[in-house]
Amino acid sequence: MNNLQLKDDLKVSKLILGTVNFGTGLSKEHSFEMMDYYFAKGGNTFDTARAYCGWIKGGEFKSEETLGQWVKERNVRDKVIIITKGGHPSFEDPLFKPRLSEEEIRYDMEVSLKTLQMDYVDLYLLHRDDESRPVSEIVDTLDRLVKEGKTRYVGVSNWTVSRIIEANKYAKEKNKVEICSSEIQWSLAECFPRTFNDETLICMNKEIYDEYMKLDMPILAYSSQAGGVFSCGYNRRLEDIAPKHMKYLSVENVIRYGKLLDLCEKKNYEPSSAALQYITDNKLKAAAIIGASKMEQLMESMKAAESLLTEDEIAQLV
């Protein structure tokens, strides 16, 4: 499998296995089967978070716990890249207040390491931003976590490009650790924060795309399959779209789906693979975080690692 270089000594798989439902929507047994398959196919990067699946009764910590158990039982810590996230607002807080004080970030870091049964993670991301808090304060906290050996590198999720630039400008001036990657929502389907009923999310659009091209920062794309809306075999006009995918129904996405089907029919590609390759083969450096509820879905997604889309083919899709 191809890799995405984040730092000189940090490469992540172009297809990253998302573990959000591990231990909750997926049993431990089925989660282990998926991780075994992904690893056997050459994937080595796993994405989790302290917040997964805190919105489900009894689900808190299950994602990190299940991933950590698999890594320990398979004895592969030195062969995998572990990404986790902290600083997510509490699901019990109706105001969804930011949690990015040093105390809160440290608390989440320590809980994650304990749950994962690890001494360190390879990449630690802040799950949300708090724009009312000086970015220098946040960078100082992250810098201390790296110096203490709790994480090798740091990044952010759902931050604006302007805040990332501000953070790294301060980090360079003060010789602190810099943000090396950004995790945002990106898929072939056009999406907005309202699509996910969460205005704190950052969803890729033309303006943000251009900003990242200028910044030259690697993207880790979550919800990269848009819930599988383009791989369910719907008719060209999405007239038979299932209720669970209605949030993706728009004029733009009908157009993009038609372009995807045209390309796949012409080149004999699978829509599910081509939709992922739109991200992994894009001129904007990126890896796609993939998820699955069934082994067949994971097997289908992994086919995206077997071929490449050309720049011209990618341009045909949007």
TrEMBL record:
Residues 14-317 form the NADP-dependent oxidoreductase domain. GO terms for cellular component: cytosol. It comes from the Bacteria. InterPro entries: AKR (IPR020471), AKR_Detox_Biosynth (IPR050523), NAD(P)_OxRdtase_dom_sf (IPR036812), NADP_OxRdtase_dom (IPR023210). Pfam families: Aldo_ket_red. GO terms for molecular function: oxidoreductase activity. Keywords: Oxidoreductase. This is Aldo/keto reductase. It comes from Inconstantimicrobium porci.
